[in-house]
Write a structure and sequence with these properties.
By secondary structure, this protein is of the alpha/beta class. It has helices spanning 26-36, 55-58, 90-100, 120-126, 129-135, 138-141, and strands spanning 19-20, 40-45, 48-54, 83-85, 104-108, 114-119. The chain contains six helices and six strands; from the N terminus they run E-H-E-E-H-E-H-E-E-H-H-H. The radius of gyration is 19 Å and the shape is globular.
Length: 153
């Protein structure tokens, strides 16, 4: 019997998360992300995370109007946040990524405060290959659009 002892997420979570208030303009939030070379920014109000703005979100915006850049990032952020408690391990976090269908999970303290951020890439880099091989569902390894064929001899 193979018993795995998964790493706690606290060993890999990014604790230096870029944050801003909801009233920061989209232009300033984008500049901050560019200068810090990060792909997301967490929007906080009174120390509590309330939303996230990511590169993926920016691809959905119509930039044909100059006014868009002066809009508060809080009006364009993804909310509510997908979050997990800081006491989870990497296996549990991997399941949450799959369940939520997001690339970033906000990690919260027991008091609901921002502890850090975990990305899918963080989990993949710190998990062993065996774990991910077991996560595949049967449908993901079958050819698409065709039912399985069983050859009879």
């Amino acid at each position: 019997m193979n018993i795995r002892h998964a790493k706690p997420i606290t060993t890999v979570v990014q604790q230096q998360v870029i944050t801003c208030k909801a009233d920061l303009s989209l232009a300033d939030a984008s500049k901050l992300m560019h200068h810090r070379r990060c792909s997301s920014i967490v929007i906080v109000e009174q120390g509590i995370p309330v939303g996230i703005w990511t590169e993926s979100d920016s691809l959905k915006v119509d930039y044909s109007s100059d006014e868009i850049l002066s809009m508060p990032v809080g009006q364009l952020m993804s909310s509510p946040l997908k979050s997990i408690p800081e006491h989870l391990n990497l296996d549990e976090a991997a399941h949450e990524f799959k369940r939520c269908g997001v690339r970033h999970l906000i990690v919260l303290t027991a008091q609901g405060r921002l502890f850090g951020m975990l990305s899918q890439s963080d989990v993949v880099r710190h998990q062993d290959a065996e774990y991910f091989l077991h996560m595949n569902e049967v449908e993901t390894v079958l050819p698409t659009g065709q039912p399985p064929q069983i050859e009879q001899s």
